[in-house]
Amino acid sequence: MSKHLLVVFHTQSGTTSKMADAVIHGASSPDVDGVEVRAKSALEAEAGDLLWADAFILGSPENFGYMSGAMKYFLDRVYYECVDKINGRPFALFVRAGNDGSGAISSMRRILKGLAVREVQKPVLIAGVFDESRLTECEELGLTMAAGLEAGVF
Ligand SMILES: Cc1cc2nc3c(=O)[nH]c(=O)nc-3n(C[C@H](O)[C@H](O)[C@H](O)COP(=O)(O)O)c2cc1C
Fold first, then answer.
1. How far is the CA of 120 from the centre of ligand 1 (A)?
2. Looking at residues 63-82, what average pLDDT do you find?
3. Which of 35, 59, 91, 154 could disulfide-pair with 9, CB 3.0 to 4.6 Å?
4. Class of the CATH domain delimited by 3-151
């Protein structure tokens, strides 16, 4: 029986989506068996996607010192349908920011704390000039989450 890994992200000018592509690529590695990866934009993803997921990864730009409005809208829409139903599920974050990123990370963590889910990897934060070489960290994040799910280590 396969396990399920969900990636939900938002992008406006395209850099967070490059990070998401790398995360999805890593998570879909042929080295991992038995993990189905589903990727959705934050505007499309629904509570059913989060309930489906054995683990999930959220990616957002930092806008105005917070997660993007689209990611907040996703969490607003799914919160009450998911609260008390996904307790303990593992998650990880990736964030793109012009210069900071801490507000996006802390705001997502604050809401996810209410969902009682567990952050199992350090976030990948690419701040400042977009350094494409750091996409390998996104790929590793996806691979680690998928491999950890497969191995049952989370
Ligand atoms: C409306 C707006 C607000 C932003 N606010 C912040 C911010 O508070 N902190 C920061 O580090 N970057 C900020 N940025 C920069 C974005 O995080 C950066 O442009 C990022 O690359 C956007 O991701 P995207 O390419 O996936 O859309 C802001 C950008 C926009 C458009």
1. 25
2. 98
3. 59
4. alpha beta
